[in-house]
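Homework help board

Subject: predicted structure for assignment chain

Our instructor gave us this sequence and asked us to write out the predicted structure in token form, then describe one feature. I got the tokens but I'm not sure how to describe them. Can anyone check?
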Amino acid sequence: MKKKRSAWSLGAVFFIAALAVFAAGKVYRPDMNNCAGFTAADAGAILGLPAAAITARTEKVHASLWTCTFRAGEQTLAFSVELAKTAEEAAADMARYRENLELTAETAPFKDKLPKGAWSEIVPLGDENTWTDVSGTLTVRQGNVTLQVQAPAGKLEQISVAKAFLKKL
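My token output:
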């Protein structure tokens, strides 16, 4: 009987520990020197161009923020990637971003001009996401990584960029 109780206790401890780890969220550590592995070929697949026609550039803006830009003539694919220390920190940043969008939507020139509100969510995409007409961008959080797609301008193309990037994590 003692062994059964001991096994149950041990099982409960592992279950609670697993819940704590799951709740903590995934922490990714992508190599941002090459845009987390997102390549000119990935950009070309979205833009409908050969990889050889695309110039790629990754720039570190500050300690946790990078921009990735892929250009071919007049066509551009651009996004930023922010790496938080934890998924909770990234989730809190996403909540603040949504609050800022709501405040912005109440000011000129946006007041009463955003029929769908300041932001909307596209499900399922990452752990959470935000599309906004305020800046025409898609922001996606996966674990501690937050991706914001600025170009191309179309929502469907931005979703394609986000899906392709998230596969690299």
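Reply (TA_rk): Your tokens look well-formed. For the description, you could write something like this. Residues 2-24 form the longest helix (23 residues). That's the kind of observation they're looking for.
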